[in-house]
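User: Predict the structure for this protein chain, please.
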Amino acid sequence: MNKQNLNPLDDTESAAALAYAEERRANIRTFVRTNPDYYIRNFDKIGASSRFTATFNAMAGLFGPVWFGARGLWSWALPFLILEALAFVQIARGLFGDLAADAMARIASIEGTLDLRRQQLATAIETNSDKIDVYRRTVDSARSQHRRYPCGSRSAGGRRADHRADRVADPAAGQGRAIRRGQLGA
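Assistant: Here is the predicted structure, written as structure tokens:
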């Protein structure tokens, strides 16, 4: 093929093409500043083909918002920072699950035991049993275990469950009276 029929875009050997390539590399070095050789190689690869050329920047892929910020592309950095933060939160929730599940199960177990002991105490008070003191001690013991868990469960009113009043039959008071849980042992 002779030089006159050569497409100017395919000419990579002429002085003009070499000068243009050198100017392009200098412009890339000025624009990129960090690791310009990597970008020169990739831009040469992209420019060598008229079709789509797949490339991958590992640092941009792994540290997208940081990479965008380092390049001064703040309109891309901030939205991707928010998206990645949400993604990391979801990944952490998936990996670690509900960290308080064991404590909440323990609290539910203690509350179930506490309710059973309160019912036993109420029955003992109604029947004037000799075991009233035993049931009072077990209720106090279960209540002290329940207080070890500061999160505790909440009643429908939003207060902690151990602050609501129980209705306990008391033979000395007649029908029944409201006794706060703290007064059961008194």
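The chain is about 60% helix and 5% strand.
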